[in-house]
Amino acid sequence: MTGALFAQSLVLGILLGGLYALLAAGLTLYFGVMRVVMIAHSAFLILAAYLAWYFHERTGIDPLLSLVVTVPLFFVVGYGMQRFLVSRLRPISLTTMSVLLTFAVALTIEGLLGFVWTGTQRRVQLGYSGMSIEVAGVSIAVVKLIAFGLAAVSLGALYLILRRTSFGRALRATTQHPEAARLVGIDTDRVAGLGFGLGLATAAVGGTALALDYTIYPSLHWHWIGPLMAIIVVGGLGSIPGAAIAALLLGVAASLLQVPLGTTWAQTVFYLALFVTLMIRPQGFFGGRLAQRF
Amino acid sequence: MRATRRLTVTAIAAASALSLSACLASPEQGAGEAGGPDDPIVIGVSLPLTGDFAEPGKGVQRGYEAWAKHVNEAGGLLDRQVELVIVDDQSNADRVASDYERLINQDGVDLVFGPFSTRLVVPAAQVAQDYGFLFVEPAGAAAEVFEQGFDNLFYAAPAIADDHYDHLAEYVLALPEDERPKTAAVASMDDPFAQGTAYGLRDKLADAGIEVVVDEVYPPNTTDFSGIAAKIADSEADLLIVGSQYQDGVNLVVALQQQDYQPQMAAISGAPTNAEFPEAIGDKTEGILAPTGYTPTAPYPSNQEFVEAYTAEHDAPPAEDEANAWTTGQVVAAAVEAVGCADPSPECQEQLVGWLKENEVETVVGTLSWDAQGRPQSAHLIQQYVDGEIKIVLPDDVKEADLVHPKPTW
Q1: Are the Cβ atoms of B230 and A220 closer than 8 angstroms?
Q2: Domain extents for chain B?
Q3: Per-residue DSSP letters for B58-118?
Q4: Is the ipTM of this complex over 0.85?
């Protein structure tokens, strides 16, 4: 591997890892707050990408602007989904049943996407699709940079919400100890609903970022959910910083391994990391107290 | 359960015995009536009109029907009208075999045409072989079709996948030493057809000493091509060879442009001949080369006739599936006219097969001839985006524009 190819792959890995980080953050949030395994997270991601594509197709306006609609929409849908579907599951079997429930939701979304927009692959045509900026011999595609920027800003915002607002404190309290949180007067049901909405809003941002540079088709979400699930286990279930760090590391590893191994095998790095984590540190590498309990 | 199955088997055995005797009896009875000027030539076809291959299957159907109509308007074959019997095999390989069995045995068709695509062509050709029928097929370019030992099969298209790029390979190897690419980067979808095309060119050039510096295969659902693009860009190969279907070709080209890779020559099979390609890539198509089995603008004499007849009926020019179906009709018709018979008797079918083995046929995709296994002996036309439009650049005798080399930057 030449130095230039190494640098190029490293940059590509970081850019991809940023997107993974945002998506994994949402996924780990659901688990942290509600012990829900949200299989449909990546289906919503693809739904948001389709909405961005359709918005651009119809209006010709930059697909980024679709965020103004999709982010609030997904937040409301997420809140509703938690209050009217997930919260109806019996607490004792919540985690396992949530897999079934969200699996069904994922299939429904996939089916509807195929029904409305057919199975044809779609791609947003942008004037700046092929443009790039060159820094020290490394080409950075403008679309990938925008996607990375979006992911970074959203992750930063998520972090600030969780750390600096009273809602964030309530959410973290619910994550750490739901009964204690209820005892100090936190409406944990409402907080859980809002947390779910927040997670789904990250899928809206991620989907829009995805639509900028990827081809989309209804069943694409199955390609995303596997690596994302692996990332949140490696990072420690429920730990947002853990998910972000694991996403970046694994994104870079996949990108670098692609050079010697090729496209087909590089993807296995996520699952190898998952196996290794489960064998030597089942609670994840970056998880806190919560992760240790699961 | 088991009793039912035994009963079914017995029933099938009885039915086939009956139909066999009917078949054995038919030549004598049929001989009197067949061949009369009022008796149409019945051609049996099974096509995937539903299921996986429904789209291309319907294209082939349109081609066959347009051909039959055109022939009948011109007075028919051997002064007899042509009648098509088309049945639907639901893209099912078991069904296609029983369809041809029925067409030949029970319906007593005079001739058969092939179905669409390798998976259905092989079982159908086996049935035709068993009954000694001539089998000309419009789609089934994979190598395995020609490795089954069929001696009655002919593929009605210019070339099998491996030979699609032959004209381009010749062109590259004829370039003066200093203009000839020295290195090549290859990327192909993990798909027999895409790989067949790309590797045909790769191997011919590698044999002539061009160094293959990148050789990547990606799974069909790949959406992120930046890693492959990084490798290709890093290699700075002079020549880019891509075996794609459609969307993967578009994605790879965009990823290569993002990394500012500028090859001297870019040969991409699959995507560029698609009408949506220029829309997807924008103004960056200039100089991209692609092989094509058919184009309505090809100047072969019968092609203009075909395009006019087809366009008049469908308000749109024909695509490759329609063209290959029409070609199948032309090939069979040429043999029928030359031999002077069109009936199911083994003598007639044998003569038709024999004639095609010895002769060339003028078709809408050029002059075709075949080897002993039925592989067509030509190559695909090579098209290139020149001044924003896709034009034939190779071979020289049918070109619409000169090949631009080295290609402009994208």
Answers
A1: no
A2: 34-159+299-368, 163-292+380-398
A3: HHHHHHHHHHHHHHHHTT-BTTB-EEEEEEE-TT-HHHHHHHHHHHHHTS--SEEB--SSH
A4: no
Cβ atoms of B327 and B353 closer than 8 Å: no
CA distance A73 to A246: 29
User: Which residue segment(s) compose the domain that A215 sits in?
Assistant: 8-220
CB B71 within 8 A of CB B98: no
* B163-292+380-398 shares the fold of B34-159+299-368: yes
> For residue B76, is it left (φ>0), alpha (ψ between -120 and 50) or beta?
left
Structural domain tally of chain A?
1
Tokens 């296994």, residue located = B373
Residue A153 backbone dihedrals phi, psi, to 5 degrees: -65, -45
Residue B216 and residue B228 in contact, taking contact as beta carbons nearer than 8 Å? yes
Judge whether A34 lies within some domain: yes
Q: Do B298 and B270 form a contact (C-beta atoms < 8 A)?
A: no
Structure tokens at B337: 């006219």
End-to-end CA distance of chain B: 66
Q: Which fold, B34-159+299-368? A: Rossmann fold (3.40.50)
Q: pLDDT, tens digit, for every residue of B147-173?
A: 989 999 999 988 888 888 999 999 999
CATH topology of domain B163-292+380-398: Rossmann fold (3.40.50)
Q: Which two tokens stand for residue A277?
A: 């984590």
pLDDT for A52-62, tens place per residue?
999 998 998 99
- Whole-prediction pTM: 0.76
Which SS3 state, helix, strand or coil, does residue A86 take?
Answer: helix
Domain presence at residue A20: yes
Count other C-beta atoms under 10 Å from residue A62's C-beta: 16
> Would residue A291 count as lying in a domain?
no
- Coil vs helix vs strand at B42: strand
Question: How distant is the Cα of B168 from the closest Cα of chain A, in angstroms?
Answer: 27
End-to-end alpha carbon distance in chain A = 41
* Best A11, A12, A146 residue to mutate vs chain B (most B CBs within 10 Å): A12
- In angstroms, how far is CA A231 from the centroid of its own chain? 10
**B280 and A123 in contact by Cβ < 8 A?**
yes
B218/A8 Cβ within 8 A: no
- The phi and psi torsions of A59 (rounded to 5 degrees) equal -105, -20
